[in-house]
Amino acid sequence: MGMGRVRRALLVVLIVAAAAGSEVGSARPAGATAGGFIDVRGQEFYAPAVVWMRSESLTTGVGGSNRFAPHATVTRAEAATFLWRQQGSPATARPHGFVDVPAGSWYDAAVRWMAAHGHTTGVGGSNRFEPLRPVTRAELSALMWRVAGRPAVSTPHGFVDVPAGSWYDAPVRWMKAKGITTGVGGSNRFDPTGRSTRGQQATFIWRGQGRPAPPNPGDSRDCASFRTQPEAQGWFTLYRPWYGDVAKLDPDGDGIACPKLPGPKAFPTFQPDEYKELVLALEPLPDTIALAVPPSITGHAEADARIRWLAESRGYRLRAVPAVGLTSGAGVPLLPAAAHALGALRADARAHGLPLVPSSGYRSVDLQRSIFLRKLGGWSPSQIASGAADGAIGAVLRFNSIPGYSKHHTARAVDLTDGGSVGRFEGTATEQWLRVYDFHNAKRHGFVPSYPRGASAQGPDPEPWEYVHVGVREIRCAAFYIPMADPTATTACP
Q: Which CATH architecture has domain 272-481?
């Protein structure tokens, strides 16, 4: 392949492996391990891609740190700037015409270049670029396809959520044909409205380059280099397919690296977004069935669509409803498994001299609808559909879900208090006991926080009183379901 074709192939998939605003001028951290990133352990689908990218100087981590932030979303400004730099940062005098791209901003020149070459025409062909909004997977596919020269591909993609003739249909067909995407988790879904993560985009880069091997680490590590067996296993798993056991971490050849090192902790430590991702990965939770169609809110199609758009922009997601009968969990209706776990959690708290009182459990779709509409007030459907009520809707969404989108519908979520109001729960002795050591006492009974502080776009504002029961095994094995920053978390689960 000629150098021009190599360069074009790289540009097709080089979207945002290194976020422009966060990686400018950063230096490679000392003491690098597998890629130098403590949040890329080796077993994850994106691990070889990230390590290869690091060796090619395509990423230096977030802010030059030892983290790659694989779950972080990438903004449209970062994507534009990265592509522009890969082209050699060409100067373009032609204005872009976007009212939301300030002159002289760090992404101004990049957006001018993209507009001049037809890689972007703005959001919906408008005079807005929305530079700080995360890139969706549909937008990403379209951007890659345009940079590739809009190649025609007749091969069907097979994704049930990519409508024929949609503006991203042809880009997704091309991505599937080139092997750049295999769908979400190898499924028949592309998730076009989902936000693109750094881990996903690193993988697109790597696949577009033919899945090159990460650089050979040689015998630079031994078992003394790792804190736990899972950490050693991740490094071993990363390099073994290409180089075998170069560091001789598995002298018995049984596939288990450094078996004498300590095993995984009882419970992994979660980043705020990882709590959110775990619940999403497990849904629909046991004994529940996912809602197939969003329920009516006002009965007016355009008004309902506007409300749902605002809710989903905040991170609200369609949930599930019980598939079996409910039981009482200290006075609130819950699924039997959640009610039993709540009883054990309350007994544990009592043993420590702490009151733990549930105030709300299962909530029906109809009840959630009435709560939401009561909080919203007397806005007419036409006012809602026009956008006039957006501010009022946003204020309600800070604390109240729309019908069909509440975790309370699952009968596995519960609001907890110490006998007072939920609004005064945070900071009480009971609440501190629940969240000590990264919610260790809640985890021991299968509960995790529903809406923790620090998580991005999770729906409502943080709710320190709401917990959701996912199960002890699922928490222990969280890294089996989602990639995690905790290098000591096990990625295998019986």
A: 2-Layer Sandwich (3.30)
